[in-house]
Amino acid sequence: MTFRSGESFMRKYMARVGRALLSEFGAFTDAFASAIPGLTGSFVRSRLLRMRGMAMGPRARLSPGLIVMGPENVRTGEGFGCMQHCFIAADGDGSIVVGNGVRFNERVHLNASIAGHIEIGDNVLVGPGVVLRATNHRFRRVDIPIREQGHEPGTIVIGDDVWLGANVTVVSGVKVGRGAIVAAGAVVTRDVDPLSIVGGVPARAIGSREGHRPH
């Protein structure tokens, strides 16, 4: 019985070591691949991410500086593209699903770590500096630091044909409807209706793609 217990401990320990080594390997390959320019760099990055478990559709264009954490939990559709220095995180049982024809500008930050979920539809345009964060820190207790209170996982859903302008922030629990436009610098804290135009902090309706002004 003691032998079996020790054997179980060793098996768990070796599995943990294996995961750590795989993570280190991923960090080294990311650092190497992120610096390669042009189509060659895009090809190398795509191949390495697929080797690490990321499901990626054809014709991906991945610019230098891309970092992906938890690639096995990320799926992108056909024609996915991202410009320089984008960050995509779905480690810790998170998940990210990106549709077809989606384009990220530079410095886009998607974070679904620690059981969060981000879903982006087809033909979505994401401007530079956009942040989507699907998991929040818990903070209700005041007797211990926030960093020790764990996380609250949530979901962000971006519909088809949405345009997120530069430096937009979308928080957990928000759904942006099909065809909506979010103006530059907006902070989206509640759902956005389809075909609406929103802006401001917090974001509110400022127009409609159908040509009607909000009342």
Describe what this molecule looks like in 3D:
The protein has helices spanning 2-34, 38-51, and strands spanning 55-56, 61-62, 67-69, 74-76, 81-82, 87-89, 95-98, 103-104, 109-111, 117-120, 125-126, 131-133, 135-137, 151-153, 155-158, 163-164, 169-170, 175-176, 181-182, 187-188, 196-199, 204-208. The model has no long low-confidence stretch (mean pLDDT 89). An eight-stranded mixed β-sheet has the order 2-5-8-11-16-19-21-22. A six-stranded parallel β-sheet has the order 1-4-7-10-15-18, covered by helices on one side. It has a six-stranded parallel β-sheet with strand order 3-6-9-12-17-20. α1 runs antiparallel to α2. It is of the alpha/beta class. The termini are far apart.
Helix-strand makeup class: alpha/beta
Choose one word for the global shape.
globular
Write the element-wise H/E pattern from the N-terminal end onward. HHEEEEEEEEEEEEEEEEEEEEEE
Number of helices: 2
Global mean pLDDT:
89
- DSSP summary, beta strand count: 22
Radius of gyration: 20 Å
Low-confidence segments: none
Instruction: Work out the helicity level.
Output: 10-25%
Quaternary state reads single chain
Strand order of the largest sheet: 2-5-8-11-16-19-21-22
What fraction of residues sit in β-strands?
25-35%
- Biggest sheet statistics: 8 strands, mixed
Supply the key terms:
six-stranded parallel sheet; alpha/beta; 215 residues; eight-stranded mixed sheet; globular; 2 helices
Short description:
With about 220 residues, the protein is an alpha/beta fold. It contains 2 helices and 22 strands. The protein is globular and about 70 Å long.
